[in-house]
Design brief:
The complex is a heterodimer of chains A (487) and B (481). By secondary structure, chain A is an alpha/beta fold. Helices cover 43% and strands 13% of the residues of chain A. Chain A has one domain: Alpha-Beta Complex (Amidase signature (AS) enzymes), CATH 3.90.1300.10. An 11-stranded mixed β-sheet of chain A has the order 1-3-2-4-6-5-10-11-9-7-8, sandwiched between helices. In chain A, a hairpin with a 5-residue loop joins β10 (440-447) and β11. The longest helix of chain A is centred in the last third of the chain and has 24 residues, at 374-397. Chain A is globular and about 70 Å long. Chain B is an alpha+beta fold and 481 residues long. The longest helix of chain B has 20 residues, at 225-244. Classes of the chains: A alpha/beta (487), B alpha+beta (481). Chain A binds chain B through residues 84-85, 91, 93, 98, 101, 103-105, 107, 202-207, 209-211, 237-241, 317-318, 320-321, 324-327, 329-331, 341, 345, 365, 368-370, 373, 377, and chain B through 46, 49-58, 85, 87, 89, 91, 94-97, 145, 147, 274, 276-278, 281-284.
Chain lengths: 487, 481
């Protein structure tokens, strides 16, 4: 039974809990057992909050026993990426720099999950300060891909996707700045959504690049993704970039199917930069969507590559600014034996930040510095405007854009270490959606010849998550049926 | 030091940057209170303390106040404006950036007119932008340095003038005018001792007649008009002396030490920080609609210059009296209330500027006499029912115990004595009693006549009509002769 519980989707679990076929304590205990069994080899969690989790589960059971009708997520175990602030629980961003930092507040999304009575299991590993795509840069050690532990889970939300794929959390919340939810979701074979910019509050998310960051759900399937997204897509008056926008109930929309949806396939992302096996799998998925009634056509997004470079410039620039607050003065790591304020800054930051973070800070400062600002930052902003326009043009004729999520499947740990440029190429398919603030979802679409998951990405117009979910859900249901037939 | 002769060959070119704390109830990006003088770190939250994940949300009131400052100084208000991050490391700046504005400031291209010895002069205002204040460092001897975040995030506007100012007096006049205008709009207390109105001076010198600008120095954070004047005078002489000695000036930031009256170099341009300004991605572009502008315009009270014009034209005040009355908005408001209730507004102004000013503490602006009461005193004085001395006594009495002055005059019998028979009787007595004074007067001593008037006034118990007394005395003395 325990194995079964951790294999259930959120909606399955929610039904079982509501019918009292399983208790919240049983559910949470099963997950905690699995974390104890597997976290040592996977490295998905940095902090496990089992005591608090069990207490919360008991409370859920107590209320349910009283006959109260509880929210859909009541008693559902969730893991949170460790850059999402949790009151009273350390939030490390997988960095030495935040050693000992315990936030005195919850992120808005955490408050929302608490109001839904979801049970937090702990804080999930990530690339340091969300800078990376392989989850090898964490101060607490790498995360391994549960599909093949020799391989990376992707990043930076690799702890989230590994946990969901391995059954160490029923779902997780990650963050995505250039692909940090979608790329690891593709590598681990789970579903990850980067919502429309402003749909989910960023308050309490330790910022990497504030104009690109979004928190999003990582789930076992598309239905769960919609369910969790609905729970966290709420307006927050205390985030000036949060948008006041009501989504229609998604559960009903899912069933509407892919019929009639116009889907564009950008030729730039079905080119040589994408591995043959990934292309084959995504093209097959496209054919399935066509069979389901979607209308497919090739489109062009000529600025995709430029947008990817510009995204790096903007994200490094904003990161260099956002990292300034980590100065060894107020909280977190402070170097010992500093003789002056300048030494506190210099030594704390030198010792507290890892290589990748320092590289971004240096580059970001360069991009913003007098004499380089025009060439880098200012041009990057122009490209951002242009890629937005590119997308606008495409969405005049199409409802969705379909691309591979990643150029390759998961690579081996250490394979690309020391080659930041190649790792950074892993964002080529995903960064543009962040630049334009558009919603994009990655979902599994088969495997390569070694059996590693391949992900496809659906990009929608702003606030068109419902359309994305229609296509994704239709595809997922159809693929599931086909698999059953094969079996 | 260089001689006056040498100094006179040069002129100074000055631009001022003034920081004004806005008196919003809460801070610019969070809901912490802004009260001055609270216990350290009792007015800060994750946002003003720069904790990770905390996000700023603009306090609309701060925006409205800043727009009012722009409207009151004749600026153009941008229809859209951005907020930027200005980066530098300092422990009083928890985020390592200050939220300010770079290009596209909220207000641009304004001006203020100031009164100088040579008449009215227009000083251009380049821009006004909004920003947050930093925290405060407290250095404890031998114990280290502590950070107080209370002031961090208090809303500020920075008002940058054009380099139109040519003397310390003009600088002072500009600052006084700016302060008056800001205080009129009600957006700041402008308390210099609490740092809610502080000034940076940009100053360079050049030979008179030259068009180009010299190398400028910026003198930071001066918090009194007197120090601004002294800093400018010192800095002018220092720069002229350096040029005369053949030295090359460098662009630098200096500080003024009020103890020595001198300025000292803090850093030169070579060591200047590259602030790496960047649009703040946490804050959307601010849009200022026409409706908002109209509403804020309607909330701006009549400003000193407009009031001055009104007071001279409608109430017949002298320009000097009008200028004095309008320095403080409270005084002007009081004047207007009282002036509306009497036929003698000039008398109201005179009483405010002499009798009342004498009773007020320095910086006191409130007047504990109902305007209607002061108006009644002016009315009685204007109609000749009381004399000016009685007027002064009434102001004094009402200051301590405000009551209806008409009743007081009636009860105490303070009405002016203008009856020629009564006054003639007293005058005859005085002439008879003071032959020496009378002869002194006749031999040309003007003071002797005033003494005689005083004697008659004494006999009336201070209630005599001074004009009639003078006439009678002159008539009687000359008739006798």
């Amino acid at each position: 039974m325990k194995e079964e519980i951790t294999a259930k989707t959120v909606s399955q679990l929610s039904r079982l809990l509501a019918k009292k076929e399983v208790s919240a304590v049983e559910t949470v205990s099963a997950y905690i057992q699995k974390i104890q069994d597997l976290n040592g080899s996977l490295g998905a969690y940095i902090t496990v909050t089992e005591k608090a989790a069990l207490k919360q589960a008991e409370e859920v059971d107590r209320l349910r026993a009283k006959g109260e009708s509880l929210p859909l997520l009541a008693g559902i175990p969730v893991g949170l990426k460790d850059n999402i602030c949790t009151k009273g629980t350390p939030t490390t961003c997988a960095s030495r720099m935040l050693e000992g930092f315990v936030p005195p507040y919850n992120a808005f999304v955490v408050d929302l999950l608490e109001s839904q009575m979801a049970v937090m299991l702990g804080k999930l590993n990530m690339d340091e300060f969300a800078m990376g795509s392989s989850n090898e840069t964490s101060y607490f050690g790498p995360v391994r891909n549960p599909v093949d532990t020799e391989r990376v889970p992707g990043g930076s939300s690799g702890g989230c996707t590994a946990a969901v794929a391995a059954g160490l959390a029923a779902f997780a919340l990650g963050s995505d700045t250039a692909g940090s939810i979608r790329q690891p979701a593709a590598f681990c074979g789970v579903v990850g959504l980067k919502p429309t910019y402003g749909a989910v509050s960023r308050r309490g998310l330790v910022a990497l690049a504030s104009s690109l960051d979004q928190i999003g759900p990582i789930t076992k399937d598309v239905g769960d993704s919609a369910l969790v997204f609905e729970a966290i897509a709420k307006h927050d008056e205390q985030d000036a970039t949060s948008v006041r926008r009501e989504y229609p109930p998604l559960a009903k929309i899912l069933e509407k199917g892919a019929e009639g949806l116009r889907i564009g396939l950008p030729k730039e992302l079905f080119s040589d930069i994408i591995s043959g096996e990934v292309k084959t799998a995504v093209k097959a998925a496209a054919e399935r969507l066509e069979a389901l009634g979607a209308k497919l056509d090739e489109v062009s997004l000529p600025l995709l590559k430029a947008a990817h470079s510009a995204c790096f410039v903007i994200s490094a620039a904003e990161a260099s600014s956002n990292m300034g607050k980590f100065d060894g003065i107020k909280y977190g790591y402070r170097a010992k034996d500093c003789g002056s304020i300048d030494e506190i800054y210099k030594f704390s930051r030198s010792q507290g930040f890892g290589r990748g973070v320092k590289r971004r800070i240096l580059l970001g400062n360069l991009f913003l510095s007098a004499g380089h600002y025009q060439k880098y930052y200012s041009n990057a902003l122009k490209i951002r405007t242009l890629i937005r326009r590119d997308f606008e043009n495409v969405f005049e004729k199409f409802d969705l854009i379909l691309t591979p999520t990643t150029p390759t499947t998961a690579y081996k740990l250490g394979e690309k270490r020391g080659d930041p440029l190649e790792i950074y190429m892993g964002d080529i398919c995903t960064a543009a959606a962040n630049m334009a603030g558009l919603p994009a979802l990655s979902l599994p679409c088969g495997a390569d010849l070694s059996g590693l998951p391949v992900g496809m990405q659906l990009i929608g117009n702003a606030f068109d998550e419902p359309l994305i979910y229609r296509a994704a859900y239709a595809y997922e249901q159809s693929a599931k049926t086909a698999r059953r037939k094969d079996d | 030091m260089v001689s006056q002769n040498v100094l006179q060959k040069y002129e100074m070119v000055i631009g001022l940057e003034v920081h004004v704390e806005l008196k919003t109830r809460t801070k610019i990006f969070c809901s912490c209170p802004t009260d001055f003088g609270a216990e350290p770190n009792t007015q800060c939250c994750p946002i003003c303390a720069g904790l990770p994940g905390a996000l700023p949300v603009l306090n609309r009131q701060a925006l409205y106040y800043a727009i009012k400052a722009g409207l009151a100084t004749n600026c153009k208000i941008a229809s859209t404006t951005k907020q930027h991050r200005k980066h530098y490391f300092y422990p009083d700046l928890p985020n390592a950036y200050q939220i300010s504005q770079y290009d596209k400031p909220l207000c641009e291209n304004g001006y203020l007119d100031i009164e100088t010895g040579k008449g009215t002069k227009r000083i251009g205002i380049t821009r006004i932008h909004i920003e947050e204040d930093a925290g405060k460092l407290v250095h404890l001897e031998g114990e280290g340095t502590l950070i107080d975040c209370n002031r961090g995030g208090v809303p500020l506007i920075e008002i940058v003038s054009e380099p139109d100012i040519r003397s310390a007096e003009e600088a002072k006049a500009y600052l006084q005018k700016l302060r008056a205008v800001i205080m009129y709009t009600g957006i700041s207390d402008c308390k210099m001792n609490e740092g809610s109105f502080r000034c940076d001076v940009n100053i360079s010198v050049r030979k008179k007649g030259e068009k180009g600008l010299g190398v400028r120095a910026e003198i930071k954070n001066i918090n009194s008009f007197l120090f601004v004047v002294r800093a400018i005078e010192y800095e002018f002489a220092r720069q002229v002396e350096a040029i005369e000695a053949g030295e090359t000036l460098v662009q630098e930031t200096r500080r003024f030490d009020s103890a020595t009256g001198k300025t000292y170099s803090m850093r030169t341009k070579e060591n200047a920080t590259d602030y790496r300004y960047m649009p703040n991605p946490d804050l959307p572009v601010i849009e200022v609609t026409g409706e908002l502008l109209d509403r804020l315009k309607s909330e701006i009270p009549m400003l000193p210059d407009q009031r001055k014009k009104k007071y001279t034209e409608e109430y017949g005040l002298t320009p000097y009296a009008a200028e004095q009355i309008t320095v403080q908005r409270e005084t002007a408001d009081y004047f207007e209330k009282a002036a509306a209730l009497t036929d003698y507004p000039v008398l109201v102004a005179n009483m405010i500027l002499t009798d009342i000013a004498r009773l007020q503490q320095p910086d006191q602006t409130d007047i504990p006499i109902l305007p209607v009461h002061l108006a009644a005193i002016a009315q009685m004085a204007g109609e000749g029912r009381i004399n000016s001395r009685t007027g002064r006594i009434l102001v004094q009495e009402l200051w301590e115990n405000d009551t209806d002055p008409e009743k007081l005059v009636e009860e105490k019998g303070l009405e002016q004595i203008s009856d020629i028979n009564i006054l003639s009787g007293y005058a005859k007595e005085v002439i008879a009693e003071n032959p020496k004074t009378v002869s002194d007067y006749l031999s040309g001593k003007a003071a002797a006549f005033q003494a005689l008037v005083g004697q008659v006034m004494k006999k009336t118990g201070g209630r005599g009509n001074p004009v009639i007394i003078q006439e009678i005395l002159k008539r009687l003395i000359h008739k006798k002769e």
